[in-house]
Each structure stands twice: as structure tokens, then as C-alpha cells.
Amino acid sequence: MEINVNSASFKKEVIESKEPVLVDFWAEWCMPCRMVAPALSQLAKEYDGKLTVAKVNVDDSPELAGMYGVSGIPTMAIFKNGKVVDTIVGALPKHHIERAIKPHLAA
Fold it and tell me: N or C: which end of the chain has fewer CB within 10 A?
């Protein structure tokens, strides 16, 4: 599943999620963010029911980016049980992102 979240919905959709969440910190003007977006959409479909991909626009929710130490985008943070368990920085290929998320998925 792929969703958009902001400061108002972050706690419910990410922190309280029963399944792992890959949070994509991005912005409209960020070309590398646009390059990685299709891979994230594919992962959201492939791991539907096991992983949620949550997109946070840093221009709309700068406080979330600050709270999680995002200094460059794209940055992806993997949340499990409400905590960041891994971080991926940069527009990496799908297989690199997939390799980072797999250890955090339920069997």
C-alpha cells in the first residue's frame, strides 16, 4: 500500500502501524526523488499487506524531516514498531531498497 502522510497523520499511519513502513521523504522539485518514485510504487504493490510506503513531502511537513534528521532527499526511513530501524539516502535502484526492507518484513 502507498499513502501520503503529513504531520497530522504521521503518528496513526507510521508510528502506530502494525506492519513495517518505508517512509519516503521527498519534494516535488527533487529530480532524484522523482526517479526513485516508480520503484517505491512497485515495492508498495509487491509487498502489499506486508509493507506500507508512506510519502512525506518535506516542503509540506518540514518538522517531520527535522525530527528524523533528514538533511538531504530522497531519504527513506524504515519504521518497525514505531521506531526507525534503517535509513536509505539517495536515489538507489529498486533492488538496493528491497534488500534494505526485506530483513524487517514478517515471515
Answer: C
Looking at the structure of the chain, the number of domains it has is: 1
Q: Of residues 21, 23, 30, 56, which has the active-site annotation?
A: 30
pTM of the prediction?
Answer: 0.95
Active site residue 2: no
pLDDT in tens, 92-101: 999 999 999 9
Catalytic site residue from 5, 22, 23, 33: 33
Domain of residue 54, CATH code: 3.40.30.10
Catalytic, 30? Answer yes
Q: Rounded CA gap, 37 and 30, in Å?
A: 11
Whether 26 contacts 89, CB under 8 Å: no
Compute φ and ψ for 39, nearest 5 degrees.
-65, -40
